[in-house]
Amino acid sequence: MLTILKIIQYLVRALNSEGTPGQVAVGFTLGAALGLTPVVNLHSLVFIAVIAVFRVSVPGALLGWLLMTPVGFLLDPAFDAIGRALLLNAGELTPLWTTIYNTPILSLANLNNSVVLGSLIGWAGLTVPIYVVARIGVGQYRKHVYPKIATWKIFKAVKASKVYNVYRLFQP
Amino acid sequence: MARVKLFRWQSLIPLGILFVLLGVLLWLFLDVLVERSVERSGTYIVGARVDLASADVRLGDGVVVLRGLQVTNPDAPMTNLIEAREIVLNVRMAPLLEKKLHIDTLALRDMRFGTPRAESGALKNPPPGSGQIKRDIDRWARQIKIPSFSLEGLGQVVNVGAIRPESLQTLAQARAIVAASDSMVGMWDQQIRALDPRPQIDSTRAFIAELRAADPARLGVAGITTLGTNARARLTAVTHLRNQVAALDSSARGGVADVRSLVQGLADARDADIAFARGLLKLPSLEGPQLSPAIFGEAALSWVKPVLYWMRIAEEYVPPGLNPRRYAGPRRARRRGTTVLFPTGQSTPRFLLGFGEASLALGGTGAAAGSYAARITGLTSDPMLTRTPIALLASRTDAVRGPRDIRVAALLDHASRPIRDSLAADLRGISLPSVTLAPLGARLLLGTGMSNLSLARSGDQLDARWLWRSPDVRWERLTGATPGDAAAQRIGTKAWADDLLWRTIAGIDNVEIDLRLSGTVTRPSLAVRSNVGETIAQSLRREFGREVERAEQQVRAKVDSLVQSEVARARAMAETARAKAMNEIAPRVAEVQQVETQLDAEIRALVQRLPAGVRVPALSIPGLPRVGRPDTTVPDTTRKTPPDTTPPDTTATAVPDSTPRHRS
């Protein structure tokens, strides 16, 4: 139950954060990378570092992660196909994969796995659409939806909770 | 305008703390991760559970200690293939950054084989790809046809009712002959009716008579010209008819020849049916070479399957060449995908064991008691990178009693193509297993003896021989019957059969079983030979050779009775077809040919009777076909006789014959 409440908190705050719609959209896009790709991998640390170091919306990133995780599961067959095509059928890329596979640290990134590689490439291809949709969505939400839900008691309760203070640390 | 800040510097500390926490967690759970990793990868490779009690990773020393390893035997899930109390590995750290495992030395302590398991090691839901090799080998084993061996039924009325007509080749072939003959005869009738040569033959004969009676002087030039034109047209028509009839004749002869070969094949089909029916009735063979596979086939398969399995495992995980290799990705909630490895000539192997050593001490005073040692060098996943063969040597270093001649040597050369594997195992004075021989209703306790396995593989070809020999075997009866039972006196009963076999095998003390594998690695052929088979064959021949012969006669009679009427019908139909071809088609060809020859002769005679200097173009056209040489090829009936472009000689002027007269 607590988890569900926190999820609702993130959802509301992400959409209503004080960051600009652009910052939320970039955060959402970076969070989508965590959702679309298998998370227990080296690249996830890189994405987390980028989200933390750059002034993007952290709640936006969490929202992107949350929403895109089931999408990642659904798109796994497509990611697998993309990865297999790149790893096995694109002969001109073999030297690149060979270098990555034989380079210390980089070889730990599992880029030689079809789903990892395919999902990263898939996310890269979807970056612009995700960003555009997220930006428009946040703008529309703030203009039309937020004024209505701001008056809800539950919203006020969530906003007053302690988690909100932690969130403010990362607020852009 | 306020400057947009790009970085969030204050997050660096929490981020650093996060990464440090992750590192600490990794360090804390590294032992568990290694333990799970060994279990998962081992399970995937073996196709049965691999359990590890604990793992102790000392990163500073580069030492990993694995304790309580149990590898389930995939063929016997309640038994461990190998159990080791402790395994100590000295691991190089740098290759780990490339996800490579390089072990300088490995030491196995207290290794044991075939220990019982507390719970089954079979996999309920094996991962995709895991155990594939075992499944392949099981599939191969299932398609090996082990001859049946049963003495039950001998001496009784043979149940020939088990022979079903629909399963007999002879019947099918006879029906095919009937159908083909019937179809051919019908087709020929139609074609003969369509050709209907009789009216043309009769009219041509009448025309020949007219030609013979023709007087050129009385007919005049115009009459001769008309007669010549008619003669030429008639001859062309008769030649065309002759070609058509000859084509039908040729086709008929071909059909008759085909049917004749089918009729001749009926004898072979009958022999095959008798062999098939004999198999249905499970009549025993009385030949030693056929009895040995029937008796030891199942046991031989269970012995050679592990050999093939580990050879295939060696090929799978020690592959030759440097082409990208595919494996199933790691197990996770998301799809596993395919992990592709890209080794290069300059890189280091993904897995390398420089030197491994195992020791084993068996206590007690039995034949197997003593110390054993095994060494392995150069074990790698990329033999093309190490360029050295993998060598394994195991031997008994000390024996409490008995001979010490236990030696196993293996060499895997996968660094060059074709790959070459060799294995020589010579075990003497060891306890051989007991074998349950269901066809004999007995268990063979081989006792102390020798086992010698030599195997050579080159590329896809395999040649192996496995010899088991024991000079002092014992036999145990599986059934409770004892010699002299009343039931055992009734020939053909199971008790009688068991009793006979028991009396035969009970006197065999010295047993030799010789297995041979040859052919391709994936589908080798298996041959089994044993003195037990030969001894039983001699006994069977002595005891009831005549019984088997009598039963075979019954089988033969049953098969004949089932196929006789259909075979006779087939032969009759084939004869009908032959008679049709010979009596109705061939004479027509001869008759048309005769008429054609006569017509040609009469035309020639008419030309001879023409007055000097008179030339009738119709009778001297170069294209006038020659007769008397029957065209034996099938004529192209679509081709028409070229139209005569020569203008008719209506002037009937006598032209001085300055050129030699053309003779057709």
Supply the key terms.
heterodimer, A: 172 residues, mainly alpha, 8 helices, 78% helix, 0% strand, B: 664 residues, alpha+beta, 13-stranded mixed β-sheet, three-stranded antiparallel β-sheet, 18 strands, disordered C terminus
Structure description:
The complex is a heterodimer of chains A (172) and B (664). Chain A is mainly alpha-helical and 172 residues long. Chain A contains 8 helices and no strands. The two termini of chain A are 28 Å apart. The model of chain A has no long low-confidence stretch (mean pLDDT 84). Chain B has 664 residues and is an alpha+beta fold. Chain B is 42% helix and 24% strand. Chain B contains 9 helices and 18 strands.
Strand tally of chain B is 18
Radius of gyration of chain A: 18 Å
Distance between the termini of chain B: 118 Å
Strand content of chain A: under 5%
Large-scale geometry of chain B = elongated
Series of H and E elements of chain B: HEEEEHHHHHEEEEHEEEEEEEEHEEH
Taken from the alpha-carbon principal axes, the silhouette of chain A is elongated
**Ends distance of chain A:** 28 Å
> From the helix content, strand content and strand pairing of chain B, which structural class follows?
alpha+beta
The low-confidence runs of chain B, each spanning 5 or more residues with pLDDT under 50, are 621-664
Which percent range fits the helix content of chain A? over 70%
Counting H and I runs of at least 4 residues, what is the number of helices of chain A? Answer: 8
Largest interface: A-B, 39 and 36 residues
The quaternary structure here is heterodimer
Structural class label of chain A: mainly alpha
The residue-averaged pLDDT of chain B reads: 80
* Biggest beta sheet attributes of chain A: none
Radius of gyration of chain B: 44 Å
Strand order of the largest sheet of chain B: 1-2-3-4-7-8-9-10-11-14-15-17-18
